[in-house]
Amino acid sequence: MLNIYKWSETDRKTKNKIMNRSMFDISAIRDYVAGWLTKIQKEGDMAMLEYTRQFDNKEFKLKDLKVTRREIENAYKTVNPKVVEILKRQISISRQNAVSRIRQETVLKSFVPGVTVGYKISPIESAGLAVPAGQVPLPTVMQILAVSAKAAGVSRIIACYPPTGEYPEILIAADLSGVDEIYRVGGIAGIAAMAYGTETIKPVVKISGPGSIYTQAAKMLVFGKVTIDMVAGPSEAIILADDKADPIYCAADILARAEHAPDAAGVLVTDSIKLKK
């Protein structure tokens, strides 16, 4: 259901609610997230297994943590070839974009005798990708993250996703994009494993990817031990439109953001009575 407000007639409380929509605040869950991070840092695989069984898959077994080559090959057999071709096209576009932005260079300058300053841009050794799969599989997220890391020349790329179901599309996207290791673990546990390492998963230098507020809080709390891309989300679309705008396009853009999570926001700002209806 869409709420429609006429700004000049909207009370201050509602205006504040609209203006502060989707604010990211981890204060209420900080201690909870930190508790799991500490537990997994100390206890490794077993704590990671406990988390996964509690939140993602109560029947999960540690032997299924790492995706095997055979499982990847079987994924190709279960997915419609047309879907595989779509993934390949997406990856090709993502790769062209990523390569166009790559810079690997060393710049040295000497302003006074005996003093040289400069910088060097080079690939990091390893990257961990957090790929959500709580509500629906997101192979596009997998390929966008992985292709960027691969184009940059990262030596070791791992990906983690929650074992909430069988997601062959995610495995195919990871394989086509050049991911070296794939693990079935998500949320706080996935971030902890990539940051601190466990008996099975070696730690990485940088963690990237979207996810729930718990995943993003975990990224914030491990920052310093590892580097992160950013705090992602909540998703939002705000569209400024007049009476010439296509209502179908406006609705599609809003829905594309709103489907990400319950805390996503879609806002249309318009002076057109016809468009808002």
TrEMBL record:
Gene3D superfamilies: Nitrogenase molybdenum iron protein domain (3.40.50.1980). One of its GO terms (biological process) is L-histidine biosynthetic process. GO terms for molecular function: histidinol dehydrogenase activity; metal ion binding; NAD binding. InterPro entries: Ald_DH/histidinol_DH (IPR016161), Histidinol_DH_CS (IPR001692), Hstdl_DH (IPR012131). Keywords: Metal-binding, Oxidoreductase, Zinc. Its cofactor is Zn(2+). One of its GO terms (cellular component) is cytoplasm. It holds the Pfam family Histidinol_dh. The keyword Oxidoreductase applies. The keyword Plastid does not apply. Belongs to the histidinol dehydrogenase family. This is Histidinol dehydrogenase.
